[in-house]
Amino acid sequence: MEPGKGRAQRTRQVLLFFVFLGGSLVCSETWSYSTAEEMEVGTFIANVVKDMGLDVEDLVARGARVIFDDYKPYLRLDPQNGDLLLNEQLDREALCDLTEPCILHFQVLFENPLQFFRAELLVKDINDHTPTFLNNHILLKVSEGTTLGTVFQIDSAQDLDVGKNGVQNYTVSPNPYFHLKLRHSDEGRKYPELVLDQSLDREKESELSLTLTAVDGGSPPRSGTTLINVVVLDINDNAPEFEKPVYEVHVPESSPLDSLIIKVSATDLDAGINGELSYSFSHVSRDVRKTFEIHPISGEVYLKAPLDFEIIQSYIINIQAIDSGSLSGKSNILVRVVDVNDNPPEIAMTSLTSPIPENSSPEMVVAVFSIRDQDSGDNGRMVCSIQDNLPFVLKPTFKNFYSLVTEHPLDREIRNEYNITITVTDLGTPRLKTEHNITVLVSDVNDNAPAFTQTSYTLFVRENNSPALHIGSVSATDRDSGTNAQVTYSLLPSQDPHLPLPSLVSINANSGHLFALRSLDYEALQEFEFRVGATDRGSPALSSEALVRVLVLDANDNSPFVLYPLQNGSAPCTELVPRAAEPGYLVTKVVAVDGDSGQNAWLSYQLLKATEPGLFGVWAHNGEVRTARLLSERDAVKHRLVVLVKDNGEPPRSATATLHVLLVDGFSQPYLPLPEAAPAQAQADSLTIYLVVALASVSSLFLLSVLLFVAVRLCRRSRAASVGRCSVPEGPFPGHLVDVSGTGTLSQSYQYEVCLTGGSGTNEFKFLKPIIPNLLPRDSEMEKDKSNFVNGFGFN
Question: How far apart are CA 510 and CA 505, in angstroms?
Answer without folding.
Answer: 16
